Design the sequence.
């Protein structure tokens, strides 16, 4: 396939571009900044410019849309996160529709479901508010008062409505947690008692995913998604020395009911829908941490 990749200069965009090229796809990469030239066509473009987006997507068969501001504090004033991300998403999705591109994969975020206000009024992150365990793509939206999360939630809703309105529209939103590079491994540090409610890692369920696994997942989404809009949650939680998954859940998330079996490859995250529908499993085993 000829695939347009937005946000290709970012870490996730790079990982996805590498995975697509390795699988033999033709890639048209675009970003607002230039970092390195991948072995494919690279177009400098501002996704907030609707006319520029058409030029990038024309002639493509699919779109991988990664090109958003990556968190709430990257630009000021903060409202630009919401307004500019929404503009980018609207421009990409509508251009794809106008150009007859019916295969779109969107990089969403765990923050769509975490209910975290992200410090807009000085609040500290609270324990994650996911309504059940293990966690999966069916978790309902709960973006909180978080402009970044709201922009991602609205994009998911746009794709749902477009899938209803456009015959043959094939779309997927992948909610990613913290993405980590195998070259820059940041060790988790836990204690044997329940974590403080102010600790950020607890507010997102301790979830993470390695970048190369994220890239391979996006490739398989583009290759295998069917009609409609599907939401996936891709992540892993670490193993903790001396604790099985039941004990981890009881210790750190005592108020969240368990409604299904554990998936050992994901820990507290159920990766079986990704395995069953897309044939994807993470290449990296869950990382191990020692309480202390």
Sequence:
């Amino acid at each position: 396939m000829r695939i347009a990749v937005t946000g290709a200069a970012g870490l996730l965009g790079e990982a996805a571009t590498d995975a697509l090229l390795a699988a033999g796809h033709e890639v048209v990469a675009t970003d607002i900044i230039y970092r390195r030239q991948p072995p494919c066509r690279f177009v400098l473009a501002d996704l907030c410019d609707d006319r520029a987006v058409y030029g990038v997507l024309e002639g493509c068969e699919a779109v991988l849309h990664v090109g958003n501001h990556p968190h709430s504090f990257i630009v000021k004033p903060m409202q630009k996160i919401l307004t500019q991300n929404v503009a980018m998403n609207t421009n990409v999705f509508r251009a794809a529709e106008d150009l007859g591109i019916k295969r779109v994969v969107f990089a969403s975020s765990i923050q769509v479901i975490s209910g975290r206000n992200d410090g807009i009024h000085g609040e500290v992150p609270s324990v994650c508010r996911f309504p059940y365990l293990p966690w999966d793509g069916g978790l309902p939206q709960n973006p909180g008062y978080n402009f970044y999360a709201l922009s991602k939630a609205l994009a998911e809703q746009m794709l749902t409505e477009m899938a209803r309105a456009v015959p043959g529209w094939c779309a997927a939103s992948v909610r990613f947690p913290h993405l980590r590079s195998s070259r820059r491994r940041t060790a988790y540090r836990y204690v044997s008692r329940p974590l403080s409610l102010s600790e950020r890692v607890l507010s997102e369920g301790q979830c993470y995913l390695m970048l190369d696994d994220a890239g391979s997942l996006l490739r398989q989404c583009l290759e295998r998604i069917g009609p409609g809009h599907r939401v996936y949650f891709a992540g892993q939680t670490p193993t903790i020395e001396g604790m099985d998954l039941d004990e981890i859940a009881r210790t750190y998330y005592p108020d969240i009911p368990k409604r299904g079996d554990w998936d050992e490859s994901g820990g507290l995250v159920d990766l079986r829908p990704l395995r069953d529908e897309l044939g994807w499993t993470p290449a990296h085993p869950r990382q191990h941490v020692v309480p202390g």
The first strand starts at residue 2 and ends at 6. The first helix runs from residue 11 to 22. Residues 104 and 171 are 5 Å apart (CA to CA). DSSP finds nine helices and eleven strands in the chain.
